[in-house]
Amino acid sequence: MDQELRRAAKDLLIRYGGDSFPNLFHAAQGAVVVDDEGREILDFTSGQMCATVGHNHPAIVRAIKESCDTAIHMFSGMIPETVAKLARKLGEWLPPPLKRSLFVNTGSEANEAALRIAKLATGGYEVIALGGSWHGTTGASAAASYASDRRGYGPKVPGGHVIPEPNAYRCPVEHCRDKCDMTCLRIGLSMFDMATDGAPAAAIAEPVISAGGVIVPPDGYFQELRKACDARGMLLIFDEAQTAFGRIGDRFAATKLGVIPDVMSVSKTLGGGVPLAATITSDAIEEKAHKAGFTYYTSHVSDPLPAAVGLAVLETIEREDLIPRAVEMGAYLRTGLETLQQRYEAIGDVRGEGLLLGVELVQDRETRTPHHALGAVTTARCFELGLSMNIRRRPERGSVWRIAPPLTVTAGEIDRAVDILDRALKDGLDTVARG
Ligand SMILES: Cc1ncc(COP(=O)(O)O)c(C=O)c1O
Domain residues of the chain, as ranges? Predict the structure, then answer.
């Protein structure tokens, strides 16, 4: 370990928010990252939720090397062959009428472009988003995000409306308990109808509200939202940054739910760790946006290297049959977490889909008072014991471990992680009790 290098990281980098570790990190392979002490740590966040096929998968490494022999970057008006190939492959995966893609870099950008398309296609500018949502950090994406801190950055993009999220465990309208009856959606829409300027453009939603605490909306929720959008002339946008390409046990949340949005954004899980995202829509909406003068011309739109990686990611998911694997390993991990729930009163709820799981920590199961202190100490203890996972802490909405290993994770790695969670809970409860 190089102390001087650690000091450089501490003194020379802008602190960009979120929790960070004191250690530096050296390498990543499969479901494991290696720190600057040579310690192997299970990575149950798949990097930043991106490495669904595992870190440094040989197919990704090969695609990058081949790009170095052909092309890394091109003039944005030149469509590289790899981009056409990725569009064709994505077309095989997509539910019709979703078909046309724009390839950009990050999830924030993909949502930015999705919202621009919705505004041009409808002529409106108002955007409904869900409480607890996270769509990114750029202008319009940040304006539609309610899990992040919005204070201090000045006026946001006009036209934003928030509706309460369908959180059955911690109902934001204090109405349901354990089963959401969608009162939140009805109230949210009626408030929107009161507040609208008459220029609706879109409703944007994560099919599983991830950063907001791994909240799974009830059956029928998106069918209702779809109808509400149609009735108001708004487009429905699914932000599938975390749900697309297998993580929740289907190609997309859209295919799993049987609800096809007008526009879909995909990002994290498409690039497998390389910056790649896409905004996807139908011929009809693309035509409307194009006729209205749609532009999204950036330095790295349609770049060949990330497209080659995206193609390798999709081919790897197909070849290694990773979607059924997410179902199987997700069920296995969930069983492990539910076993812990039976033993620890502090685990109030275990939820999620496939390999995107959340564990909510509470002071007691009756009042459901969030256990933020336990969330903090258990996350730190897990890291000491060799497991990296995420804690989502929101003062008013609870403390939730977010657990999302790569789809290539083995049963042995899951056993090890559950064992570490067990020890971290035991030690964490002792630490909290000692004050
Ligand atoms: C659902 C969702 N959408 C969009 C984003 C933003 O993506 P990016 O950080 O790649 O800009 C995130 C990031 O965490 C996300 O979780």
Answer: 3-53+321-434, 59-319
